[in-house]
Amino acid sequence: MKHDKIERNLGILLVLTMVAISVGGMVEIIPLFFIKETVEKVEGVRPYKPLELRGRDIYIREGCYLCHSQMIRPFRDEALRYGHYSLAAESKYDHPFQWGSKRTGPDLARVGGKYSNDWQTQHLIAPRSLVPQSVMPNYPWLATTDLDYSDINLRMRALRKTGVPYSESQAEYERNVEEFGADVAKYLHIPDAEKNLIGQAQQGNYDTNPDKLTEMDALVAYLQMLGTLVDFKKYDDDYFVKFR
Amino acid sequence: MSQETKTNSASNEPKSRARKAGGVPSTGHSWDGIEELTNQLPRWWVWAFYLTAIFTVVYWLFYPAWPIGSTYTKGVPGLNSITYTATQVDGTQVEKTTHWNMRSKFMVEMNELHAAQKQWFDKVAATPFDQIAQDAELMQFVTSAGKTLFSDNCAPCHQAGGQGVIGFAPNLTDDHWQYGSSYAQIQDVIVHGRQGYMPPFKEIITDDEITSAAHYVLSLSGEPHDAASAELGAKVFKSDTAACYACHGADAKGKEGLGSANLTDKIWLWANIPEIEDADEKLKAVKNIIAGGLNRGVMPAWEDRLKPDQIKLLTVYVHQGLGGGK
Known about the structure:
The complex is a heterodimer of chains A (244) and B (326). Chain A has helices at residues 3-8, 10-34, 50-61, 76-82, 117-125, 152-161, 170-180, 182-185, 193-204, 215-225. In chain A, α3 (50-61) packs across α10 (215-225) and α5 (117-125) crosses α10. Chain A is mainly alpha-helical. Chain B has 12 helices and 9 strands. In chain B, β6 (81-87) and β7 form a beta hairpin. Chain B starts with a helix and ends in a 5-residue tail after the last helix. The relative contact order of chain B is 0.10. The chains are: A mainly alpha (244), B mainly alpha (326). The interface between A and B is large, with 38 and 37 residues.
């Protein structure tokens, strides 16, 4: 086809531009579905429990990702500050993943367990009360807004469609028991989602106010599990090298 | 392309392609008399382009590149390999050689870091606590490495200089230590974490008893109080229903094993008593603590986040560097 013709015909130009760009994308992405080493074989990674899932949705709604990445790169300085580099396996149930690259604040991939629930709650209400030089905004409404969990089943079903193994039937539940153990499988069962969500919030008391189930409960539950699923002590220092 | 262009090139000079300006053919595009010519690309540019193409081929020889089925090319074996040492789960060190990749490169970076800091960390690990403090050169390392570790991990609660936040996390620079001031005690707090617990008393003793206990507590550190009520409070403190003494000790100086506060000094963690002006407000704040109890003070455990040698270094930093240790 003559250049002249393409340049003078907007429709053809558009289609051909898209084809040219997709080739680049496809060459980079499609092989990853087939290469065995892409997602590391590692124990402990599981889908989010219902309360954590709501917390993640709030994290996205509030735009925390605009200032925080969740991806520790395999560099010395990052390992020293944040801990073990992130694994692909650790975000295999994330849709969409929260890797990001904007770091106005620190990376959060392994922030789980680093601070107390009390700290997380206070820091979200008024970051400068704890870190005087912080530029993070205040999120005081999280502690006063009741958590809406009426559609938790639908949220889990939507993720199920993308391949996250939330269970709907007894048979699926039993498969999860085999894969994740009964303690975890219980939380992945969609029909029990609401009950489990309330149970986890009451037990964990994440927002340090046991009388109320707030958005803060969900967000802190989410933050407190980030990066805690894999026990790196069980693996050789260089175990994950062989997947690259 | 404006309307003007079209009329220019299309109507006036339909065969302008053939027309030459300075010997170079025109494309026929002309704007306000400015002509677009069909000059060749500069030679240096074309060569640079070919060179980048050749570079990619060389790159394929050195680095992981092409996917094939369920695996990928890893560069020509031996051409660009990486050798590192790694600690295995069983504690042994092994040396391995792999094709070039970021994770092996990372292992090398960490090896180099450890080599650079090894002599210092080894020295910290091998030297008893009190001798570290005597060694000025070693203390220099402890102070600079400790400061970084403290900023990354501890400062968000204890603040950059270790001065703490009232109602949240204790001051580490004073000589008041809930859990003990020795190196070993501080180290144990950092390794295992702590959560001080005091039960709520609102259902154990009456409101009046809480009030008098509060007067008694205020009297211990010389705060304004009602002497008669404090006398009753002393009885509550030592009674077996409230059993304050069981945790805080009969002398109310606290017990290190429990982290129960010393109530006789002027240092307060959960209410800023010395700063409150009004005597009634002081009383109210103390009553709130007694009625509601305490279990908010969570000091996280660091044994899974920090290595033993980092924790030892931090212990010295907290004890010596922040200046509060005994």
